[in-house]
Each structure stands twice: as structure tokens, then as C-alpha cells.
Design a protein that fits this description.
Elements (H helix, E strand, L loop, with lengths): L2 E7 L3 H13 L5 E7 L5 H8 L4 E5 L4 H10 L6 E5 L3 E3 L5 H9 L3 E10 L14 E3 L5 E3 L2 E2 L2 E2 L9 E4 L6 E5 H6 L12 H11 L3 E12 L10 H18 L4 H21 L3 H26 L13 H7 L6
Parallel strand pairs: 1-2, 1-4, 2-3, 6-13
Antiparallel strand pairs: 4-12, 5-13, 6-12, 7-8, 9-10, 11-13
Helix pairs in contact: 6-7, 7-8, 7-9, 8-9
């Protein structure tokens, strides 16, 4: 199977200099491509001078993760795409178990490896950890990470198993699947677009897998810091977008409950003296209301499937019942 490792870059020369060598060293049978989102630093000239064997796709603007990859992948001939963040260190033989899973299970269309923290290599990393799931109200969580509780890697997730969503930090997908789903929703810009894509795949009966025998290390927050209000805005807004488009059952009841829970989260930000995050949630809700007619039109063209969530409310389990692994 032909595999292309595609790294989306925007003003990330330092990250490319640090992490691209590991990708080249441990991905001998893959085509390595950097898709540049109209960087204003010298990323492209740096690549051309120091990594002449790396192909470069020059996008004409910086329109985020979703459109950046949508535009770039149109120009790539491969059976499997690996969408890899520029702040990821890969390991020896990281591609072998992934390709084996694709080759032996035709129903598997998306895969995520084990994602550990580059700064604390014995711990799982926030963005994806050991594979993602979602609760009834659209709140995502992972094996190895529930909200801010992050587990140490003691081999407890060395398995291969079905998951609900795979992390965009290191996201493998069949080209045929990406094209049949019309790629990422470009209205997202960044954050949650991979969950939306996985949900749309789930609605069509496709399988997403976690392969724990493949390991990568992710810095996280290199493009947008985890405590940045813009990240809060995008996560809350795009989560509401995703629920409206994909959820099965009583949409009004789920959205109403979710808005109440978001309101409680906003009040918590006020109490903890983080007003910028409160206003980010408020802004996210107004954007959601503005785009609701468009989202409902999209919903009509998407087949919703039951059984998407693993737990009724991860918020209740985590904050009230204190049920989580740590």
C-alpha cells in the first residue's frame, strides 16, 4: 500500500527542523510531504535547502487545519494518508503495525497510534492519548485522558481496538474514505474536525481503530496553547456544530442540555477568574446560533446512526461520581 505522510505547516520552521528528521529516518517506505499554509517565515526555503527529498505543496492561504489538508490532499496519490502534526516525534517501525491493520481489515478506514507526551514520555498526551470516545452530549474524552486527568503509560493500552474518534495529531485514513466523506468540514478551521469526520464515517458503518503497537510523541499546543481563549472558542463552537450535524435521537433535548452544561462551564471560568474563557464560550454560542440553519441543512444530508456514545455523561462521571482512571 502506498502511504503519504503529510505534515501541515504554518510558520513552523523550528518544529520542522526539530521533528522532520525522525519522520524521514523512520518512514523509509513513505512519501513525505509538507503542505505549507502560506507561511510568512522562511519555512519553505529552509525545506528546499535542507530537505530536498521532501515534497512541498504550497497552499495559497492559511485557512486552518481543515481546508489546509483538504486542499493539499487533492494533489497526493496514495492509498493511505497520514496527517501528522509538525510537533510530533515518530519512532522506529511506527508505520508497520498501522499498514498491517489496514491490509488485513478492509473495514478499518481510520487509525490512530498511541500518542504519548513528548515532554513527559511516560505519560499519555492530551490530544488523543489511547483513542477517543464521546458522551451523549458531545463531550470528547480518551482512554488515558479524561478532561485534565492524564494516565501514565504502563502498557495498559498496548492493544488494538475500535474507538470512536482518532486524534488529528496523528491521523491515518484511507484516501478512498477521505474522498467519499468529502474531507474535513472547512467551517471548523481547527479543532474537532477530526471528530466530525470520524462521526460521519461511523454514521456510514465504518470502523475507526487504535493501534497501540505504534507509538508517537506529541508536544501539543505548539500552534495554539491549550489555555488560549481561542482554543476554548473553537472547541465549544465546533463541538456544537458536530452534535447538530451527526447526533441521532432527540436533537433539541441534547442541544438544550449541552447548552446548559456549557453555561456551567462558563460560570466556572468566571469563578476561577478566567473571564476571557467565559466570553469565548459566549462567542461560541452566538456563532452556533448564527450558523444553525446551515448546520440543519447539513444534517439532512447526513445519515445518523445510533450507538455513538460510550457513556451518558462524562461530565457527571468525572466531576460528580469521580469515576475515571488516573
Amino acid at each position: 500500500m502506498k502511504i503519504a505522510v503529510v505534515i501541515l505547516n504554518w510558520n513552523g520552521k523550528a518544529l520542522l527542523e526539530q521533528f522532520l528528521p525522525s519522520v524521514l529516518e523512520y518512514s523509509k517506505d513513505a512519501q513525505i510531504i509538507v503542505a505549507d499554509n502560506a507561511s510568512t517565515d522562511d519555512s519553505v526555503s529552509f525545506l528546499e535547502k535542507n530537505f530536498p527529498n521532501v515534497s512541498i505543496i504550497k497552499n495559497t492561504s492559511n485557512d486552518g487545519y481543515a481546508k489546509g489538508y483538504n486542499d493539499a490532499l487533492k494533489h497526493i496519490d496514495a492509498d493511505i494518508f497520514c496527517l501528522l502534526n509538525s510537533d510530533v516525534e515518530v519512532t522506529k517501525n511506527w508505520l508497520d503495525p498501522i499498514l498491517k491493520e489496514f491490509e488485513t481489515h478492509s473495514d478499518t478506514v481510520i487509525i490512530q497510534p498511541k500518542i504519548l507526551d513528548y515532554k513527559r514520555k511516560g505519560c499519555f498526551e492530551y490530544a488523543g492519548a489511547a483513542g477517543g470516545f464521546i458522551d451523549k452530549y458531545g463531550y470528547p474524552f480518551c482512554r488515558g485522558r479524561v478532561f485534565n486527568s492524564i494516565e501514565k503509560d504502563n502498557g495498559q493500552y498496548n492493544d488494538t481496538t475500535s474507538i470512536f474518534w482518532a486524534s488529528g495529531a496523528c491521523f491515518f485514513i484511507r484516501k478512498s474514505t477521505f474522498e467519499s466523506l468529502n474531507g474535513f468540514d472547512e467551517n471548523y478551521f481547527a479543532h474537532f474536525e477530526e471528530i466530525d469526520l470520524c462521526w460521519r464515517a461511523f454514521n456510514l458503518g465504518k470502523t475507526v481503530k487504535y493501534v497501540g503497537s505504534s507509538t508517537v510523541y506529541h508536544v501539543g499546543g505548539a500552534t495554539l496553547n491549550a489555555v488560549h481563549p481561542k482554543k476554548t472558542y473553537l472547541n465549544f463552537r465546533n463541538s456544537l456544530y458536530t452534535i447538530t450535524k451527526n447526533v441521532s435521537g432527540s436533537l433539541f433535548g441534547i442541544i438544550f442540555t449541552r447548552l446548559l452544561l456549557d453555561g456551567i462551564a462558563g460560570l466556572k471560568f468566571i469563578v476561577t477568574l478566567k473571564p476571557s474563557h467565559f466570553f469565548a464560550i459566549l462567542k461560541a454560542h452566538f456563532s452556533f446560533y448564527k450558523h444553525l440553519p446551515t448546520l440543519l441543512k447539513q444534517r439532512k444530508n447526513i445519515q445518523q446512526k445510533k450507538g455513538y456514545y460510550q457513556t451518558q455523561s462524562i461530565v457527571w462521571s468525572y466531576f460528580v461520581r469521580k469515576r475515571f482512571r488516573n
